[in-house]
Amino acid sequence: MIADGVEDEEKWLAAGIAGLQQNAFYMHRALDSNNLRDALKYSAQMLSELRTSKLSPHKYFALYMRAFDELRKLEMFFKEETRRGCSVVDLYELVQHAGNILPRLYLLCTVGSVYIKSKEAPAKDVLKDLVEMCRGIQHPVRGLFLRSYLAQVSRDKLPDIGSEYEGDADTAVDAVEFVLQNFTEMNKLWVRMQHQGPAREKEKREKERSELRDLVGKNLHVLSQIEGIDLDMYKDSVLPRVIEQVVNCKDEIAQYYLMDCIIQVFPDEYHLQTLDVLLGAFPQLQPTVDIKTVLSRLMERLSNYAASSADVLPEFLQVEAFAKLNNAIGKVIEAQPDMPILGVITLYSSLLTFTLHVHPDRLDYADQVLGACVTKLSGKGKLEENKATKQIVALLSAPLDKYNDIVTALKLSNYPRVLEYLDTETNKVMSTVIIQSIMKNKTRISTADRVEALFELIKGLIKELDGAVLDEVDEDDFKEEQNSVARLIQLLHNDDPEEMFKIICTVRKHILGGGPKRLPFTVPPLVFSSLKLVRQLQGQDENPFGEEESTTPKKIFLLLNQTVETLSNIPAPELALQLYLQCAEAANDCDLEPVAYEFFTQAFILYEEEISDSRAQITAIHLIIGTLQRMHVFGVENRDTLTHKATGYSAKLLKKPDQCRAVYACSHLFWVDDQDNVKDGERVLLCLKRALRIANAAQQMSNAARGSTGSVTLFVEILNKYLYFFEKGNPQINVAAIQSLIELVTTEMQSDSSTPDPAADAFFSSTLRYIEFQKQKGGAVGEKYEPIKV
């Protein structure tokens, strides 16, 4: 059926164009022979093709444009006729004898254009006559195109100020009157289209009306170009009449389009000075009109106007623009109780953007907007609609973008209240936006109160919100989110130790509720921030004001012990052990032996009870040995206890090579260069001999299991340790021991049962070259190495 209708329209259009072209041909012949009577006859017949009701507006437009081109030629002929002595008044009377009203009015408008140009009558009189006569066509489509033609031929002939057709003192009023009258009639015709035809074709009619809307809107554009319209005339006459027409037409499509036209075509300063009238119209529009879009565009234009120059800002204050817009939005929402929540948020988002541009110094205005938004959202629960949540993110991002400072946003009491209406995922998005803003602008958040407010805002990232299911979160996204929180914790700083300690306590309070998946990301940065504070306070163990009131390293270490303990409960024992050792090293630098010992104790307990994976054990024992070797705070008894534990655990590793390496690493616990009281050569030798025994055992096990003794790498590594302590002056490490070890390695490498290992061979060769190099140095070093034969 639709296809048939389209084909029929194409046929009717083709027939109309054929009839129009045929009559145009005879009209041209009459024009060429200066035959006025025939020219009028054939032009009237040509224009009769426009009387059709069978074409859609789109097809009718194609026919109209062909007729329009022909009328341009006819108008030029009429001009020539008047130059040849034909009276334009007679011509104006003559065309009115055309049989049908539509051709008659097209011809009348064409001659009217020539009549105005001749200046034989005032332009305002001719225009008034034409606009009145056009009322004879009440068919919507035909009437719209006729009046569009009238607007087209008259737009350069309006009796405006400065125009060659300027009339008396009220000349601009006459021009305005003509355009407004034509606009009013065209709007009535355009609206009437909606009520013609069956109800089932409503959508089709709305589409057709949308195609014709520019014909009506052009009148407002022409109106905005009239030079004689100043602010007073616009305020007193033009805008009230246009608004009256818009409100009274009671048509959704017309109201939306025309209000948008008004906002787009007239100057911003006029809008600012007539806000009362403009805003007063919005609540009177039909409930189905998309007011949010139009009102948002108005606020956007005013925002851009305010941003264009600082000189215009006093105008905004003078007219109390914020109060009027805020009041208007409230009234619009009341007038449209069914307005979707997206519309409400969009309006307040636009108002907030306007406020931030026009009144950047008035935080109370911004907070008022957010408060109004909260009021409208109350009782709605968490927002599920995707577009609405995106709009809230835009609303909350606006202050961050404007001030580039989260600290300013934290002063807005209603900011966190709006956040509460976001669903879990969008809450996380907003939290990430906030953190990115802090990172980008390097914002300094330096008080515990602000940190408290900030962590309330980003709680979507640091703890489980109601209804959140952590297992469903993408692993990479989760890591990125938690890493951003970790970076944020590192940024929090205050030079005052008391305030910094309060910040640490505040952060700790928030992150400890984050759950087992989050703590491994958030606890380490907190620990290192605390250790940074410890370094700052180093040497200030006691405070004259009393320990309860002041921040001391002891107090911080107590907090750290409790904080790291949460990781061992998750469990994340490897991470907890590393942090305990970091804390022990800091306590060592503060000369707090009991505290350092306690941290080592906790590390050993974790090693014993929680770390069972062999690779994790190897890493852990080497960390323990490395940290313990650097400790200077321990007395003999405590150091012996800890080193004994470390060597004991080293010898109990699963694989013999790992045992060997851990045991020879323990030798460093008994010989520390910068500590004279830790230079026990005998125990160093014991460790190295024990390592040798384990290396031998590893060789034998390899021989028994695989039929070959395996690599000699372990022996070469132990040889290097012998050389290290020999060079450091350990009296227990002598030339004979080194010589026998070199021979052992050489024998093993030449053995038939050994496995070829190029890396071990290169390592041994490099070690021998080092011995030769030390010999060649001469002096005491050369003398020391001289007896070693390689």
Walk me through the topology.
Blueprint: H1 2-32, H2 36-48, H3 57-83, H4 88-94, H5 101-118, H6 123-133, H7 140-154, H8 171-192, H9 202-225, H10 231-249, H11 252-265, H12 268-273, H13 275-281, H14 291-308, H15 313-318, H16 321-335, H17 341-358, H18 363-377, H19 386-403, H20 406-410, H21 415-419, H22 424-441, H23 448-457, H24 459-462, H25 475-491, H26 497-511, H27 519-537, H28 553-568, H29 573-589, H30 593-609, H31 614-629, H32 636-650, H33 656-666, H34 681-706, H35 713-728, H36 735-750, H37 758-776, H38 779-785
Helix pairs in contact: 1-2, 1-3, 2-3, 2-5, 3-5, 4-5, 5-6, 5-7, 6-8, 7-8, 7-9, 8-9, 8-10, 9-11, 10-11, 11-14, 13-16, 14-17, 16-17, 17-18, 17-19, 19-22, 22-25, 23-26, 25-27, 26-27, 27-28, 27-29, 28-29, 29-30, 29-31, 30-31, 31-32, 31-33, 32-33, 33-34, 33-35, 34-35, 35-36, 35-37, ...
Q: Mind explaining what this structure looks like?
A:
The protein is mainly alpha-helical and 790 residues long. Helices cover 73% and strands 0% of the residues. It has helices at residues 2-32, 36-48, 57-83, 88-94, 101-118, 123-133, 140-154, 171-192, 202-225, 231-249, 252-265, 268-273, 275-281, 291-308, 313-318, 321-335, 341-358, 363-377, 386-403, 406-410, 415-419, 424-441, 448-457, 459-462, 475-491, 497-511, 519-537, 553-568, 573-589, 593-609, 614-629, 636-650, 656-666, 681-706, 713-728, 735-750, 758-776, 779-785. α14 packs parallel to α17 (341-358). The chain is elongated. The chain starts with a helix and ends in a 5-residue tail after the last helix.
